[in-house]
Each structure stands twice: as C-alpha cells, then as structure tokens.
Amino acid sequence: MIDLLGFSLCLLSFNCFALAKYNHFKDVFKKRPTESQRKKLLLAAWISILLSLVLCIVTQGGYGTLLFCGFMSLSVLIIMVFYNFLVGYVKWFSVLNSVLVVLSGLFLALN
Amino acid sequence: MKDSFFRSMTWLHTWVGLIVCWLLYLIFFAGTLSFFRDEITLWNQPAIHNVQAQTQRIEAQKQQIITGFDYLASHGANSSSWRITLPEPRIPYLIYGYAKPKEPGQRRSKFENTQLNPNTMQELEPFVDTKGGNFFYRLHYDLHYMDAITARWIVCFASFFMLIAIISGVVIHKRIFKDMFSFRRNKGSRTWLDAHNLSSVLALPFHLMITYTGMITLIFMLFPYPAQTSYDDGMRGFFNDVTPRNTMTDKAQGELPMVPIQRILDQVYTKWPHADITRVQVNQPNMAASTITVLVSAGKTLRDQAPRLIFSGATGQMVAKTDDELTSSKALYESLNSMHTGRLATWLLRWLYVLGGIAGCVMIGSGCIMWAKRIRERTKNNVKPSFGLKLVEGLNLATIMGLPLATCAFFIANRLLSPTTAERADKEILAFFLTWLAVALLALIKRDTLQWRVMAAINAVACLSVPVINALTTNGNIVSYLMHKQWALFTFDALFLLFSILFFIQTEKLRTAKNNSKIISPSQSNNLKRQKP
C-alpha cells in the first residue's frame, strides 16, 4: 500500500505538471489557465513529487531512489497516453488519481 | 566540428549515436531480458515448472544443508568441491552438486548436479541442457562468438558513446522537458522525433544510471592502474585483498575428517539469527585444508557481493569473513554494481527496470529510424540513395526486427530440440544467431515497407508460436499456469501473446499505410514510400 501511495503521488504530480501547461489545460478544460491556477498546479506538483520521493526513500532505503525513478517513468508514460490519446478521460483519470492518493493515505494512516 | 556549440552538440549526438546504435540496441535488448533471467531459465526447464515455492523457505534451510552434506559425503567423497544451492524466491529448487575430475584442457571442473524439489525432497526429472536466461545475461556484456575481454572493451566503448549521446541529447533537444507529455501522431519524422524524445525523457534517470553503472561494473578492466601500482602482483593481489580468503589453514597438508555441519551452522545463526542462506560451498572436503563457505542474502541493502563466512572444515573455526561495514569506496562500488543489476530488487522495481529497458530500446530504435527517414526525405526522387543510407536502413531492419525473431527462435528451439541432442545448449544459441543472420540477409536484399511488413508478420507468428509450442510439448499451458497461480510462467506466455498482437497491429498499420499510398496519387505515393522506415 505504501508503494501505491508513492506511485499515486508521483502520478498526481505529473498530472499537475501537465495541467500547468497551457496547451494541455486547454485540451482538457477548453480554456487557458489563469496565472494563479498555473502557480497552484505547479506548487501541488512539486509538493506531491517531493512527498513521493521521501516516501520511497524512507520505506525502501537504498532502492528507494530507483523505485522513485521507475515511478516517474511509469507516470510520464501514463500521463502521455491520457493527454495524447484519451484527452476526454483526463478529468475522470484525475479524480481517480486523487481518490487513490486519499484512500491509500487513509489506509496507511489507520493501520 | 561545426562553428557553434549547439551545432557541435547536434553533430556529436547524431554521429556518436549512429555509430554504435545497433550494438547499443542489442545490449539494451539483452540487458532488459536479463532482468528476468531466472524466470527465463525457469521457462526453459520444464522439469521445474511444477515446483512450488516453499512457504517456510528460510526455516527449512538448516535441514536442507544437513541432508545435503550427507548426500555429498556418500556421492562425492573424492570430489575436490561440493556446492549446495538453496532455493530462493525466484529459483524454487534445491541443488546438491559436486565437482567432477577435470578433463584435459579444462580450466574449471564441471559439476555433477542433483536437483531436488524442496517440498518433497524428491529428485526432479533430468534437466535439459540449456543456458536459459544466462544466455541473454552474458550476451548483454560478453556478446558471443568472441573473446570475452575484447567483447567487454567493445561494450564499454559503446556505453561511453551512449553516455555522450544522452548528455548531448539533453542539450540539443531543447524542448524535451517543455514537450514532455506531447506525442504528435502521423506526422512523419516529427512523430519519430517525439517517440525518440519521449522514450528518452521518460526514463532519463534510468538511462543515465544504467549506462554509468554499466561502465562501473567493468571499471577494474577499464582503469586497472591504481591497483597495478599499489600491489606487487597487480589485479590478482587487489582482488585477493578485497575478497575474504582462508589464509590460516590453506597450507595444511593431509586428510582430516570434517566437523559436523551443525557446528558451522550454529556459528552462522549466532552471528546472523535470521540468515537467509543462499549457498554453501566446500573446498577440498575431508582434507586438512578444507573450507566451508556460507553465503547469505544481502537482503535489501545495496550490496553486490553476498555476505559470507568462511570456516575451516577440519576444525570448524571461522577463518575469514566479509566486512560487516564496508569502506566508503567499496560501498560505493558495490551499490553502483547492485543498482545496475537490480539483483535484489522487488518484483515491482524489477518491472520498472524492464520499463526503463524498453524505453531505452525505443529511444535507440527511433533514433536510428529517424536518421534514415530524414536522409530519405532529403534525397531527391531521381537520386539514387547512398550506400550509407542503404546500410543504415538494412541494419535498422536487421536489428529492430531481427532480434525479437531470433529470441523467439531461441525459445522455440528450446522446446523442439530433443533432450538427448549433443551440445543442446549451443544449438539453441545457434538457432538464435542463424535466425538473426537470415533477417540480416533479407535486409541486405531489400529494406522497404514490404520487408518491414513481412518481418512484422513473421514476428507475430513466431511470438504466437512460443506459447503454442510450449503447450504442445509440455504438460502446462497459459490457462493451467493461470489456474495454478504459476505467475512467472503465465506472464512469460502472456507477454509473447501480447507481443504477437502488437506485431499483428504493426503489420496492419504498414499494410494500410501502403494501401493509402496507392489510393492517393503517384507523386504522393512516392513521397510516402520514401517516408516508410
């Protein structure tokens, strides 16, 4: 479950990085993001990716950084597929991604 | 060199990449398969398909070692060496082996191995002679049919070129991070550039890590000078110094019975109460100079050399051991080594390594194709393509489509060759190289869309044949593997089915692309044909 949280945070981070780009934001929401929205997305992305890195290193030790790099690769691949081939599903995907973060976080907090 | 930094870097990236790209493709391809070398060996040995992993694996180790010593004492009493290899999560069977006398001209003794099911302690059916996953592992850095040292130098140079290509690539592809999530379809060489950029950037940390650590694994061959100047006997002295050795009783003469193995194991478990023993080796059993080496798993630590304790077989006294705390330089070397091999990685990390490896293959393959496509597009209709362009196109087809087909041939040969065939393992490898050679010969003759389409179709059929032939020649098949939760075997067959589907899709795409080119107009058709890989 800790790996799922690490991965979903990484995925969320790259999702936010992608949405912070004008073209991708416009593809999804049919309008340009405001500067404030972009800054918030970027902030969320950086917090999320740092949390993912910390989680990986704390739980996996030496192999944590490698796991984190692997999570980044997989996340970029998934985000690329959604933003280029399945744009219509990005909103649903983003909701699912956020739910995954919350659920895996709650599960770990309660156990 | 060109007149500006950017142009110089572009020149460097293009030529450094192009010179070694096919060799790099082979190295990445074989290296990616090597992350599953135990699983490939498992698939190649039907005798162990039904061996279930032990639930109480570590608890059973002590009794397995004691039984092994009894077995080896009765079967290999006069042997110079014994070896007990204990089951591991990915290698579920037990091996008791003893060295056979050396034949003239032999450097190392061959072992007479007895493989057992650890759950029942029954002997398994005879193993077929195969290299399994070790073939791809050795191919990755020793290549084949050539001297290993020469091959390693070549691989090192290719890795060095790769490192330069990666760094110069980051410099020249200025928008790789800006266009990180962009992939433009059906845009000719622009699409190939996007594929190249995307596969590079999505696994950039992996590409840098694997290339750099790959060279580090061979650093003592590349850079032996510090050791050569510090030790009188050069590298040999250096390796003797860093590897624990028995220097206390190695000069003892004559025969002496060995102490009971329980005494040795008690000392091991006193030092490491939860030891996960992977192997026990006995050198010169029943001699005064005998040694018993106990190797344990390094667990999750980034350490390549397995921690070990060495005991005198005659007295039971510990005579050498690996350091509990590594020096900074050794820790750095071992951690970089283990990062490269991912030997102790969990299944999740192992799959992520494979994803990185596939991204590496796509990066190299798309780079090769893109170069050829751009030159094709620049070549005027009435101008004959240059020898260089034809060579690159031929090598692209031979490497990118030839290697998967050769891999299928290796696995099909494993199932179709009779178990009694002489030098069977070498014949499996021969099937691999002959298939690759056949594709290369085809690529020599012609390299246009039709050839790519034919090769894609043959690859699709070959990938489909692997699980089908497996089902026809063994007691299991993809459905039974799923039912019995034999995940390694199931995934192996499922991956071949998946690649078969992907190759069928590629065949279709190439067919429709060709048909479209016929429908539009002759001039457009020519243009499109030229754009095909």
From TrEMBL, chain A:
The lineage of its organism: Bacteria, Pseudomonadati, Pseudomonadota, Gammaproteobacteria, Alteromonadales. This is DUF3325 domain-containing protein. Keywords: Membrane, Transmembrane, Transmembrane helix. The chain crosses the membrane at residues 42-59, 66-86, 92-110.
Automatic annotation (TrEMBL), chain B:
Keywords: Membrane, Transmembrane, Transmembrane helix. The keyword Transmembrane applies. Pfam families: PepSY_TM (PF03929). The chain crosses the membrane at residues 12-36, 151-177, 198-223, 351-373, 394-417, 429-445, 452-472, 487-505. The keyword Ribosomal protein does not apply. InterPro entries: PepSY-ass_TM. This is PepSY-associated TM helix domain-containing protein. It comes from Pseudoalteromonas distincta.
